[in-house]
Amino acid sequence: MCDDHDVAIPAPPPSDVPCSPMRPASAMSVLAALLDRALDQMAKAAADIRLFDREAIRAASDVWDNNLFPLFWAASTSDADERERRATAVLEWMASLGERRRGWMTEQAAIAGYDIEALLAPARPHTPGRDYRGHVMAPQYRLTHQNVDELVPDYDLATASVRRLQVERAGARLTASLQLVADRRFAVDEPAPPALLNVWLDGVTDIAFDLSDTQGVILDAGVQKIGISLGPGGRLRAAGGEYHLDDRSWHLSAAGRRADAVVPPRTSRSGRLRRPPGGDLSSDARAAAVLLRHSMLELRSVRYAARADHVPVLKLCRAFSGAGEAILAAGSQYGALRREAAFQDVIRAWAGQGGPDITRWFAAVLREHAGRPDIIETPRPPERTPPSLTDGSPVSGTPSRAALVMAAWTAAHTDYQTERPAAAQLQLALPPRTDKSSSEPWRLRTVGCTEPNSFRLHADAFRGAGPFVQVGKPTSACSLDLHQGALLIASGTGWSASVS
């Protein structure tokens, strides 16, 4: 039975279903809907910190890294035919950035009620590429029995070592990533960096790992079931997964030689970057685009675990709620002056929806990156409280309960001729700092340590909120225990921050 601060881990929620019937596709309407869908996805991913989905936030914000200025360009005309032509070009550009991007666009457009495939040229089949030297590059593979059988003749997994393990919550699911250092079974022409096998698992169902489980790997890929054994007692079980070899000598392997025989040679056009469609924006449309792009970059910074608890995801998503429709409405106004005024109104509306902290940050972005300090007024900061994008600094006191969001361990290694010590990192969902109201939201806290003395992780560590114990001081020798030993990490040198 869960108490007021516990969260029962639900079964995976049913997928969003498209509106019925599917609406006739307008390219500009689809483009605007995709922006709004991304914001909705991020808001849902951060709605309950105990089910925080960092990857969903990173992926949705990453869509708009180089696509926001094209979106504003497409929207900024009152000529409906020209707007459709521009929007179609932008959608084609976005869909050309890989199978995953096109799949995301198709899925999210369908949820919004649009059939985007009617607007796009047929997808081109994916083929492996070549690097700047002309050597064929390893593609990303599904973890299947056949693919693992083809991997083993080239790389010795029995002697492989774990360089990094990370297990993380993604809403109601668990995911894991594993980086292995694998010995090559084939000869290389010259000394080369170690071959790294990167494995990603989805739908993780079982975990067991401690510091005695870092040598020796067995991969067992079955139908809808992946099993990985690590050392004498470590294990990972998952519904599915993928892997990729980070090995600049892969072209010399048996699999690489087979690929080299069928992949077309690199040409002068192969490495040429395509430019996104677009054109000059008016001053206020550009200011709105700059503001939204900087906000997307801020949201995307959750990709760095240490940044995740400093990004106000919900506040930013609330500020830009309905942004796609608002941009379309402003850009389609007749006359340049009306469009400019409409984009100014859009920026002010975003600031109003975000609240004082967000407005202060918006004003700084507009001043420093768009040269427009005149569009919104900067609210006065609270007395003796510096303007901040976050909700304030932690107070002392270790909570007695916590929920695990992410746990990672990295072995000592050399990276680009730099010695890296062993390290551990945790993301924890912590209860409200006050017990006055159980309706207060939980908080995300990221802490890390170097050269941990122990690191033990079992599946039970992720079963919602549970008893949390800190022994010692976070600035010196200190251990953290969650769910009575399901997670146990001890550091002799202290943690990067206190858990409070």
TrEMBL record:
Sequence segments annotated as region (Disordered): 1-20, 256-281, 372-397
Basic and acidic residues bias locations: 372-383
Biased composition (Polar residues): 388-397
Domain of life of the source: Bacteria
Stated name of the protein: Uncharacterized protein
Lineage, uppermost ranks: Bacteria, Bacillati, Actinomycetota, Actinomycetes, Kitasatosporales
